[in-house]
Amino acid sequence: MTPDVADAQTSSEREGTRPGQQSCGGRVPILTTHALTKQFGRIRAVDGLDMEVCRGDIFGFLGPNGAGKTTVIRLALGLIHPTSGYAEVCGHRVPGALQAALRHVGGFVDDPTFYPLMSARRNLRLLGSMTGPVSEERIDEVLDIVALRDRADDRVGGFSHGMKQRLGIAQALLHRPELIVLDEPTSGLDPRGMKDVRELIRELGAAGTTVFLSSHLLHEVEQVCTRAIIINKGRVVVQGPVSALRPKDDAIKVLTGDQGRAAETLKSQFGAAGVTEDEGFLIVKADEDAVPEMVRRLVGDGVEVRAVVPAPEQGLEDFFLELTGTDDANRPAPAKRRAGLARLLPGGRR
Amino acid sequence: MNAPHGSTAAAGERGRAWGPLRREWTKLLFQRRSYLIWGGAVLIPFLIALALYLAKSDPHGGEGPLFLERVTSNGMFVPLAALSALLPFLLPLAAAMVAGYMIAGEAELGTLRIVLLRPTRRGSFILAKWTMAIVYLGVGFALMLVAGLVFGALFFDLKPLVTLSGSTVSVGQGLGLIVLCCLYGLAAMACIVSLALLFSTITDSSLTALIATIVIYIVLQVLIAFSYFDWLRPWVFPNYFLEYVNFFRDPIYWTPILKGLAAFGAWSAGLTFIAYLLFRRKDVLS
Questions:
Q1: Nearest beta carbon to residue A113 from set B15, B26, B109
Q2: pLDDT at B42
Q3: Distance (Å, rounded) from C-alpha A56 to C-alpha A13?
Q4: Cβ(B247)–Cβ(B181) below 8 Å
Q5: For the stretch A98-112, what's the b/e string if a residue is b when 16 or more beta carbons lie within 10 angstroms of its beta carbon?
Q6: Which of A97, A98, A251, B283 could bond to A78 as cystine, CB 3.0-4.6 Å?
Q7: Which residues does A125 contact at the CB level (< 8 Å), separation at least 6?
Q8: H helix count then E strand count, chain A
Q9: Pick from B117, B120, B283: which is nearest to A77 by CB?
Q10: How far is residue B137's CA from residue B32's CA, in Å, rounded to a whole number?
């Protein structure tokens, strides 16, 4: 099923996480966007985006490729100029008071890049000096945090992608910023490196630093983030606490000796919309408190009940695909994909 | 936290002012091409001096760069002959290469976006880039001057200098005139630096910025070579490139020199300002 955005909004509203909902409550927002819009020629990359990141959040920023994630980050950090609307970072309006805002921010957009002929230490010294004085001790400290101390004096040109990612995090941490913006920080890292970075993000969050984490890895957001936003086509699809992003539609799978009669009985109890069929099971939208009454009615109607089990919970990944509609759109059907692959393989048919 | 002490605050301000220049200088020193150009600035005077020393007499029958025929009689003319040889093309090429790389090169490398995530004003960023390109070329001129004098002394000896008006000036005064010529050449290169910087803000390819600058420069040179475009000459900067010879008239003929400096100043300031306006609003997508 690939519901359109309107359907997704409806389901998210049911969960209390409406698009654009301002949800910091008593906490201070650290990054907000107000009707932020960016048009590139005829393409509207960001479309009236309202977003709110609260101080202390580990905030997940999700969306399919081309959703406008990087454009939003570039807008918020003043690398590109909005067509309309604005962002507010650490209380400073962007782009108006960009310099004041950037004093409180560390991070990187896309892959972090450095001067290849300079050492890691010299790169950090050079970039760090642009924000303010930075001591050699602090440089050693951040290199320790990302486990690059032993490579501090090596040229960055010889670093692997993963090492550059870690150096990117190190430069983001140099000035102990209030807000750290990381654009896919675990990309290119091995599993150990990914785990380390996620732990680091959690530690930063625990220490009170706000982390804005753009990621394609939904499970990463589920593991690490406290709140998240999903955007698609430059618009907010849903935002709120990560726990609320995962739909908690309770459902029960029922298997009986006569599924037809059982369906009629259950529809009389839960309504026609509350009962569907999937792979031979009847799926009933109900919580477990309704099970005794449900079984009593089925048995009363002479239906043999063979199994009643909870339906598996929908993961954030499924929910993401459902919201953004990217599982089917512009993708070949599995059969077509298999046929295409068969033609590419040696001996494949033409 | 205590308020910063007055002198500490002043030192901080000075640090902030010099910081961007120091950073740009460091970046230049960590580029291999920087040393290639400086190497050329040393090599050209050496080759001129060596070639003329081996040929012993006027090898070009009076043709070739200005002052070339005078080198064999006085080593003081080696840096001037080198300047005459380099100013029409190699120095503009070096200026276009250095300044063309300044912003487009960082965009190409991907460092522009990480640098602009730091609280740096785009105006001071571009001004630091322009200044460092000039300083870099200034070092090139200094190397050419020193190398020219060293090789001139080694091969031909340094003697009092005969001006274009026929009078003679001491070695010290002659050296002063040569330094003035180099400064004039540097001012001329400021136009090329600004033009390349302008293209560097438009494109994300340093090669494109370099080629665009050289094409514009050659077009201007071609235009002023035709008498039909005589009316254009006072307005284009390459027209004044060789006016430094007027330092060797006695007394110095200041009118064309000052006209040249005014043209260089106007072109350089205008082009740099346009570059600033474009860069201020540039969307950094690299």
A1: B109
A2: 94
A3: 25
A4: yes
A5: beebbbbbbbbbbbb
A6: A98
A7: A134, A139
A8: 13, 14
A9: B117
A10: 15
Mean pLDDT of A125-151: 92
Judged by CB atoms closer than 8 Å, whether chains meet at B113 and A113 is answered as: yes
Handedness of CA A120, A125, A126, A129 (dihedral sign): positive
With CA atoms as reference, the chain B residue closest to A126 would be: B23
Across the interface, do B27 and A115 touch by the CB < 8 Å criterion? yes
Kindly state the tokens that stand for B252: 């110095």
- Residue A319: helix, strand or coil by DSSP? helix
Lowest mean pLDDT, pick from A333-342, B104-113, B157-166: A333-342
Contact B143, B62 (CB under 8 A): no
Pick the more confident residue, B146 or B3: B146
Distance in angstroms (rounded) separating the CA atoms of residues A346 and B30: 49
Q: What is the CA radius of gyration of chain A?
A: 25
Q: Which of A14, A59, A7, A10 is nearest to A32 (CA)?
A: A59
Rounded Cα distance between B41 and B148, Å, is 9
Q: What is the pLDDT of residue A335?
A: 61
Distance between CA atoms of residues B187 and B180, nearest Å: 10
B136, B128 contact by CB (below 8 A): no
Which residues of A63-153 form beta strands (DSSP E)?
84-89, 92-94, 105-108
